[in-house]
Design goal:
The complex is a heterodimer of chains A (269) and B (366).
Chain A (H helix, E strand, L loop, with lengths): L3 H8 L1 E5 L4 E5 L3 H5 L9 H4 L2 E5 L8 H24 L7 E5 L4 E5 L3 E3 H4 L7 H6 L2 H9 L2 H5 L3 H17 L2 E2 L8 E4 L9 E3 L6 E2 L3 H18 L4 H15 L3 H17 L5
Antiparallel strand pairs in A: 1-2, 2-3, 3-5, 4-5, 6-8, 7-10, 8-9
Helix pairs in contact in A: 9-11, 10-12
Chain B lengths: L17 E7 L4 E9 L5 E10 L10 H23 L8 E7 L3 H18 L3 E5 H13 L5 E5 L4 E6 L4 E6 L5 H11 L8 H11 L10 E2 L2 E2 L2 H10 L21 H27 L3 E5 L6 H13 L3 E4 L2 H4 L3 H13 L27
Parallel strand pairs in B: 1-4, 4-5, 6-11, 11-12
Antiparallel strand pairs in B: 1-2, 2-3, 6-7, 7-8, 9-10
Classes of the chains: A alpha+beta (269), B alpha/beta (366).
Chain lengths: 269, 366
């Protein structure tokens, strides 16, 4: 167990537990962190925190199945991210990979998820319980978007064009939801950006079908998490259309097919 | 949602006891249940009778024969339920029946029975969505408040969560249902359909030793199962396959039916638990409720329990009385909507094979 990766995990601060991985904030060189004042300014990148995505062993899964899946997913995710970086899609940079241990180290992104910015967080009944009737209004009324200096429509446009860039590179995200998109905080040097995260289910495909399914998954995520924001998805699509150019036609046709097929499943009983 | 306050349930306590009968026959089970909602909020299950149409090994149930089975048994099962509950049809407040989704012919024959009883005893009809019935019964039995629901049966595979008076579908199968996948494989290896093919798969899987590689197909919160069925079937053509041997766990390179059942269950259930976990993470819920026929599979319950524990939550599951299609769940969901003032007018008392879970207005929840 005393591998450098497990030592790194021990030094890391847990942040959250996602669907399939635990997320930590860590420093690649904890010892340098302490003596950071002695470092040269050009070494600032090693003082930046990184995000560790640790696919821990899932007890419910058969060990053999779990090991194969974990290894394949860490490697697959790293590959997809690198391909995205090469094609100029906004994704977090890669800092380290350890497929056998199930650890992926990524660039730390300061910002909020699109889901949070659209107010999709208050749907849970448990959350409502903790809020008092009086002070709740103030908390929610403060529009988080103001801090970022963008409108909802700007965000939708950015989503559309990022996905288009990714699809032009033949990468299929596989799990497009509003929780898997972060709006980078507008601090220099990079400014406001929409960053796509979680490429755990990503794969490569040139088929219009797969791209259409990718969009359909996002459409469903929109309608299930943000019930009133269905027209917003239309502006995502229009930005996507603009960026995709002539490829849009076949994908759009396919998307209509996929939507129909999706509904058709209601016939089974 | 800005300014959202925790709402009280719109459902008032009844001023007197309400009694409903539920008639269910969307697939090969004919179920009749009688339920009472008391003025103090108690809910009593007065009767829950079921008769299952069982086909010989290697055969599935066809709509026409299933409908005939339901027609033959309807009166016996209803009388049996009335006798158990010790009431007569005059004591009822409403008659609930499955409007859909399901197989057309069996649905029609049960709806006909419901309409006839409604006319004979002048009782109002309430058409119920089968999936909502499963969810409401599961919530009632387990006491789960606002769980993520995994609905797995012979015809449905859905991950559902409640939001704004609607059961929204977060993920579902892109092709066949998980029960269909298991049942069809049971037919391939000639397992008995008694009491249920899925049950026999579960028993065989307990003896399986070897995990064979199968495709693992999750797409976001959806799953695809048809390819896994094909791959598992393909193993029965493998030259290492020994249909009459049992797994012993030695080093011999053979594939037994037990190994295949084991591998199929492990792979398919891992996928289902994964999409449920994904939905839980997405919504931020810690409760999960398993309903539907496949929900009585103990291995699935066990895997779901481990997952929920890892996330600091609980799993809620019911036993075969309430998991497998039954009349009581139709009575429960029907009576809830009846108490909110919903009735199905006689001229609209049809049934439909296509009736999505999210089409129902869930008036009785906040």
């Amino acid at each position: 167990m005393e591998s450098p990766t497990s030592r790194l995990l021990e030094s890391a601060t847990p942040i959250s537990q996602g669907a399939e991985a635990k997320v930590f904030r860590a420093y690649l060189h904890p010892s340098l962190q302490r003596s950071s004042s002695e470092l040269q300014s050009n070494a600032s990148d090693i003082r930046e925190p990184i995000l560790l995505k640790y696919r821990f062993h899932k007890q419910y899964r058969h060990p053999t199945l779990d090991t194969t899946l974990t290894k394949a997913r860490v490697a697959g995710e790293a590959r997809a991210i690198i391909k995205c970086l090469r094609h100029g899609v906004n994704v977090p940079g890669i800092r380290m990979v350890d497929a056998t241990e199930g650890v992926l180290g990524l660039e730390w992104i300061d910002g909020k998820t699109v889901r949070f910015l659209l107010g999709g967080g208050a749907e849970d009944e448990d959350e409502d319980e903790t809020l008092e009737e009086g002070d709740e209004g103030q908390v929610v009324k403060e529009d988080p978007l103001k801090e970022y200096g963008v409108s909802q429509d700007d965000i939708m446009g950015m989503i559309g064009s990022e996905i288009a860039k990714m699809h032009s590179a033949d990468i299929i995200h596989g799990d497009l939801t509003t929780s898997n998109m972060i709006v980078r905080h507008p601090t220099p040097p990079k400014g406001v950006q929409l960053v796509l995260i979680d490429f755990g289910l990503a794969y490569t495909s040139t088929l219009a079908e797969d791209k259409a399914v990718d969009l359909y998954v996002l459409e469903r995520a929109f309608s299930s998490t943000h019930p009133a924001s269905e027209p917003l998805f239309a502006s995502v699509l229009s930005a996507y259309k603009e960026k995709m150019g002539k490829d849009w036609l076949s994908i759009s046709k396919r998307l209509d097919d996929v939507r129909l097929r999706g509904r058709k499943r209601s016939m089974v009983g | 949602m800005p300014g959202k306050v925790r709402k009280r349930s719109p459902l008032q306590l009844p001023e007197r006891p309400y009694i409903a009968i539920g008639l269910e026959g969307s697939a090969n089970k004919l179920g009749v249940g009688i339920i009472e909602h008391g003025p103090d909020g108690t809910i009593t299950i007065m009767a829950n009778v079921r008769h299952t149409y069982i086909t010989p090994p290697g055969e599935g149930f066809l709509p026409r024969d299933t409908a005939q089975h339901h027609r033959e048994w309807a009166l016996t099962v209803i009388n049996d339920a009335l006798k158990k509950a010790a009431i007569s049809l005059h004591d009822l407040d409403c008659i609930c029946y499955t409007k859909g989704p399901g197989m057309g012919a069996p649905l029609v024959s049960v709806a006909l029975v419901a309409r006839t009883l409604s006319l004979l005893y002048s009782k109002p009809l309430v058409g119920v969505n089968h999936c909502v019935g499963h969810i409401e019964m599961g919530r009632q039995i387990t006491g789960a408040q606002n769980p993520v629901v995994l609905y797995v049966s012979g015809g449905n595979t859905q991950v559902i969560a409640y939001s704004q008076q609607c059961y929204r579908i977060f993920g579902e199968t892109l092709d066949i249902a998980v029960g269909n996948c298991l049942d069809r494989f049971a037919r391939v290896i000639n397992l008995s359909n008694d009491p249920a093919p899925g049950y026999n798969i579960e028993q065989e899987a307990k003896k399986g030793k070897r995990l064979l590689p199968l495709p693992y197909a999750t797409k976001g919160m959806d799953v695809s199962l048809s390819g896994i069925l094909t791959s598992t079937e393909a193993y029965t053509m493998d030259k290492r396959f020994r249909p009459n041997r049992t797994s012993k766990g030695d080093d011999e390179d053979i594939i037994t039916p037990q190994d295949l059942c084991f591998s199929l269950q492990e792979t398919v259930f891992a996928m289902l638990v994964e999409i449920t976990e994904r939905a839980m993470a997405h919504i931020g819920s810690k409760e999960v409720l398993i309903v539907g026929g496949v929900g009585c599979n103990e291995r699935l319950q066990e895997m779901m329990g481990v997952m929920a524990k890892e996330r600091g939550g609980h799993v809620f599951a019911t036993d075969e009385r309430y998991c497998i299609d039954n009349g009581i769940m139709i009575a429960q969901a029907g009576l809830l909507s009846y108490r909110m003032g919903f009735q199905t007018p006689f001229s609209k008392s049809t049934c439909t094979q296509r009736f999505r879970t999210d089409e129902v207005h869930v008036a009785w929840r906040a």
